[in-house]
């Protein structure tokens, strides 16, 4: 889905990101963003880092907590698959 938002650069070179964009990227005051210029001349905007809470929501693991030994054993058992 392509979403286009227009913003204005103010006197100090600052840009205000619309609330809908900040919300969709889970950005809050103090967060850092990266502008990456692509070869085709367009620009990609993305959060520099994600909070652990954001990543936790992505995983949505519902089981009991695992120890490092449990994880190492699972990796060893399934490494050849």
Provide structural commentary.
With 81 residues, the protein is an alpha+beta fold. It has one domain. 31% of the residues lie in helices and 12% in strands. It is built from 3 helices and 2 strands. It has helices spanning 19-24, 52-59, 68-78, and strands at residues 33-37, 43-47. A two-stranded antiparallel ribbon has the order 1-2. The mean pLDDT is 81.
Number of helices: 3
What is the helix fraction of residues, given as a range? 25-40%
Report strand %. Answer: 5-15%
Strand order of the largest sheet: 1-2
General form: elongated
Question: Which blocks of ≥5 consecutive residues have pLDDT under 50?
Answer: none
Structural category: alpha+beta
Gap from first CA to last CA: 35 Å
List the secondary-structure elements in sequence, H or E.
Answer: HEEHH
Please, what is the average pLDDT? 81
Concise structural overview:
With 81 residues, the chain is of the alpha+beta class. It is built from three helices and two strands, in the order αββαα.
Defining traits:
two-stranded antiparallel ribbon, 2 strands, 81 residues
How would you summarize the topology of this molecule?
Layout: H1 19-24, E1 33-37, E2 43-47, H2 52-59, H3 68-78
């Amino acid at each position: 889905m392509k979403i286009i938002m227009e913003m204005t650069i103010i006197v100090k070179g600052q840009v205000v990101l619309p609330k809908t964009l900040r919300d969709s990227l889970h950005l809050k005051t103090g967060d850092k963003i990266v502008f990456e210029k692509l070869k085709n001349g367009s620009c990609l905007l993305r959060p520099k880092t994600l909070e652990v809470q954001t990543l936790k929501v992505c995983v949505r693991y519902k089981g009991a907590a695992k120890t490092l030994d449990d994880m190492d054993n699972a990796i060893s058992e399934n490494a050849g698959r």
